[in-house]
Amino acid sequence: MSSAFPQALVPFGWDDDLETAFAPHYAAGLIPARVAGVDRVRCDVITEDGPLRADSTPVLSHEDPSLSPCTGDWAALRPGAQPALAALLPRRTAIVRSSAARTSHGQVLAANVDTVAIAVSLETEVDLGRIERMLALAWESGARPVVVLTKSDHSPDPAADAARVAEAAPGAEIIAVSAATGDGVDVAAAVLTGTVVLIGPSGAGKSTLGNALLGGDVLATGAVRAGDGKGRHTTVRRELLPLPGGGVLIDTPGLRGVGLFDAAEGIQQAFAEIEELAQGCRFGDCAHDTEPGCAVQAAIEDGTLPPRRLASYRKLVRENEWIASRSDARLAAERLSKWKTIHKAQRQRYKLQGKGRGEGAP
């Protein structure tokens, strides 16, 4: 272990494993930093000596935006009059969705996350399909998902709401919170540990919940429209903030749409009961439709599996397969372009060699 172990970064998640991984960077004269926010070619970072504004362009030369610095990343920083990121440490976890630009690349929402808090407002009708989508995203990241039912003071029966959501969220913890009354805030503070990221649509109460966890009005909040229950994007970028009881919080802008990206394992986890039932189907390639001996259809018939769950599962599987096919096509095109470049260079070299032999001939 380095004698310069950065104790000031421990509350932000620094540990022995990161210290070991950073050894080559120490040898190069670099220092550890955690990315707290990214703004085009500049970013805010936390170092042992405090916050700094750093240039991120040295590690932004990737065609794939998912490899660029993101809030939550651990980085090797070159200190000096103009601090700059020299490299990113491998990510332990990453929340990745399909790019908003609809390209075949993924977009990283947050990196090195321990807990994903999926904010769901009880002020409006709960959308179970959206929760399932968010859970697939969270499970795929490698972090622990927690569904936080916000604005519980607006519900006549938060316990019943929690039970209904639990049926659509196998394996995930469900908690109900009201920042207005304080109910459940202590439970949320105990459950949401490590590096916590808040995700959900605008108006779900993410920033209000974040302020309750942070112990003050740190994050901007806005009113929700009465007509459709939607809110304004009061959070304009992802930012990392220390929590009073230890750990850090990453608030994110409201997500209008969440496209999955290479999330097959996340879907399997989000629909664990369907995956388990499928093991009992007569045919290994059962589509859970009209095949004889389908355990999934049998569960629907006897009422143990809601038809809505199977429909949602199929929708997400189709979407994920489509995204995967686009990614495969992009990779194939990149390989073809690479070989064309190599062959062109070879032809140029052979042509020059031929001219050289001609010039030297009697």
Tell me about this structure.
35% of the residues lie in helices and 20% in strands. The protein is an alpha/beta fold and 362 residues long. Among the domains are: 7-90, OB fold (Dihydrolipoamide Acetyltransferase, E2P) (Beta Barrel), CATH 2.40.50.140; 95-251, 3-Layer(aba) Sandwich (Rossmann fold), CATH 3.40.50.300. It has a six-stranded mixed sheet with strand order 10-9-8-11-13-12, sandwiched between helices. It has a five-stranded antiparallel sheet with strand order 3-2-1-4-5, with no helix packed on it. The protein has a two-stranded antiparallel sheet with strand order 6-7. The protein is globular, with a radius of gyration of 25 Å. Its EC number is 3.6.1.-. It is found in: Cytoplasm. This is Small ribosomal subunit biogenesis GTPase RsgA. Monomer. Associates with 30S ribosomal subunit, binds 16S rRNA.
Layout of helices and strands:
Layout: H1 16-21, H2 23-27, E1 31-39, E2 42-47, E3 50-55, E4 74-78, E5 84-88, E6 94-98, E7 106-111, E8 115-121, H3 128-141, E9 144-150, H4 158-167, E10 173-176, H5 185-191, E11 195-199, H6 206-214, E12 239-242, E13 248-251, H7 264-270, H8 272-278, H9 295-301, H10 307-360
Parallel strand pairs: 8-9, 8-11, 9-10, 11-13
Antiparallel strand pairs: 1-2, 1-4, 2-3, 4-5, 6-7, 12-13
Features:
10 helices; OB fold (Dihydrolipoamide Acetyltransferase, E2P); single chain; rRNA binding; 35% helix; six-stranded mixed beta sheet; hydrolase; alpha/beta; 362 residues; five-stranded antiparallel beta sheet; nucleotide-binding; Rossmann fold
